[in-house]
């Protein structure tokens, strides 16, 4: 026989028991905050926001609010930054050149580009010995050129050569970083190299090299801020705060222009006049609006050149690589 009162009591007890069951709190559901945040520190070419942030301890002050230690790591070589990201000894990579980021993602390094850092195509140039043996890009055929492979400088060379129907197979390519390449051409060990500022101005000033072709019209000269995908997924609020501090460093540098330039000159052991002359060449802008198009263009080119496997879906690669969701309101 159906008894409504018993059914009511049963349902009531069930609801009470459900209400008494332990519920996960927000703190329990969220991963613990890390004890340390590690980021690369790159002061060159003239990375004014990073210099200002380090000197003013902007990141340290922000994350100490949560008892998190913030550590800078002076790592300028892109491959070393990417290796550190892959090994989880680095959480954020500042001023990472876009070609290195694309190639790393294509090779399985799970990173996210979360902000632009700078653009400086006018601050990069192909330089040659001033002996008159090389007067055009076409004259590079059969010559020895030094630069770091897998970087934007490498892409610039390939693009410049393609304009005159040459490839890297038509010359001898020596793999070395820009500092070593600058010394190599000055010593006469190579015929050409591609240098970014401030190495470019210093090399030209010696009279041992001359500019042949700037990067303008060939590459964007883009550098970015990247983060480990695992870190971003686990700590999205910390990533957002990181970018807010970076924006604050840009704003501070603009508001305190002379002091910021002076800091950068001292940090990079440059004359203040040199920093002031280079400053207009650089754009420090966090926007990612044009970045996907730039990266897709680059990825397509790199795939055609055999630097990205033909089976890689470059549209998906770029879509997975760039994430603007962490950017602060501009």
Automatic annotation (TrEMBL):
CDD domains: PBP2_NrtA_SsuA_CpmA_like (cd01008). InterPro entries: ABC_SsuA_sub-bd, Solute-binding_3/MltF_N, SsuA/THI5. It is found in: Periplasm. Residues 36-260 form the Solute-binding protein family 3/N-terminal domain. Keywords: Signal, Transport. GO terms for molecular function: ATPase-coupled transmembrane transporter activity. Pfam families: NMT1 (PF09084). It comes from the Bacteria. One of its GO terms (cellular component) is membrane. PANTHER family: ALIPHATIC SULFONATES-BINDING PROTEIN-RELATED. This is Sulfonate transport system substrate-binding protein. It comes from Desulfosporosinus lacus DSM 15449.
